[in-house]
Write a structure and sequence with these properties.
alpha+beta; Rossmann fold; D-amino Acid Aminotransferase, Chain A, domain 1; 3 domains; 5-stranded antiparallel β-sheet; 9 helices; 30% helix; globular
């Protein structure tokens, strides 16, 4: 029997990623999976008549075999799982990896090196910075290099404090190779590829922010480090980002739950969505 799935996007993100959505649909069809785009704003989840419910356009609807959740909303993943619908990524991955402090807290337990990182509530921060300049402050729920502030002076600190839009932040040392990081693409327990992101104009290396990218070969030491993380989590498809210290070694940075693959496609001929759909199909068998 053909498996059915929902690919869930927010309307704005769907508009911006139509070619990626089409690619998802094509790969699913090639592997005999009926994948349907669902706009998050058209979904309602909650408790109806003392039962967990999912409504589409205000009406009950047959549930799919699985969902691919492309919004940052761990409760959505959790709700589907409670209804017996497999979620990619899992609710556990979504809950941890969409909160930078929780991610660092979890990954540290695996013995993975990282820069000095402190966890704060916004209202705990005063006029005196908690770390010597320069350092980086990040909103815990930011993504794609946004809500990240490079702090070199007291003016930078005060400006960043005024700009904070969420209550949880991490503050980190930036004693690394600025403007360079490596994103490692993962499907299940497999390393699909790694890309070095570089910027000569920004401390962030994000491709969307104007950085460049090239294939990054992984040696045995780095591969072993990555597999420590992979072994702990039940990943569907994610990107694991590493900073690079002055000796060229990896320092953990973050895990991107709703990861795109623009830079992988730009630097290799790897069909990561074919691999992802094949992994999902295997999980459902």
């Amino acid at each position: 029997m053909q498996k059915t799935g929902w690919l869930i996007y927010a309307q704005t993100d769907a508009n911006d990623n139509q070619s990626y959505i089409d690619w998802f649909m094509e790969e699913a069809a090639l592997q005999q999976i009926d994948l349907k785009l669902i706009i998050r704003e058209n979904l309602s989840i909650g408790i109806l008549n003392n039962k967990r419910a999912v409504l589409l356009d205000g009406q009950p609807v047959p549930l799919p075999d699985f969902v691919i959740v492309r919004v940052l909303e761990p409760l959505l993943n959790l709700h589907f799982e409670a209804l017996g619908v497999r979620s990619f990524n899992s609710a556990a991955v979504s809950q941890i990896c969409n909160h930078k402090a929780m991610t660092h807290h979890t990954v540290h337990s695996l013995g993975i090196p990282m820069v000095d990182t402190f966890f704060f509530k916004k209202d705990q921060l005063g006029s005196t910075p908690p770390m010597s300049f320069p350092f980086v402050m990040k909103e815990c729920t930011g993504r794609s290099g946004k809500q990240v502030y490079f702090i070199e002076t007291e003016d930078d600190w005060n400006t960043a404090l005024d700009a904070l839009g969420t209550p949880d932040v991490v503050i980190q040392s930036c004693d690394v190779q600025l403007g360079r990081d490596v994103r490692v693409f993962i499907v299940g327990k497999e390393i699909i590829g790694a890309v070095l992101r570089k910027s000569t104009s920004d401390f962030r290396a994000n491709f969307k922010l104007g950085g460049s990218a090239e294939v990054f070969p992984l040696d045995g030491k780095k591969t072993e480090l990555i597999h420590k993380i992979i072994g702990h989590f039940d990943f569907g498809m994610v990107g694991i980002d590493f900073l690079i210290d002055h000796q060229g070694d990896f320092l953990f940075n973050e895990i991107e739950d709703v990861v795109g693959s623009r830079i992988l496609s730009a630097t290799t001929d790897t069909n990561i969505l074919q691999k992802y759909i094949a992994y999902i199909k295997k999980c459902l068998a």
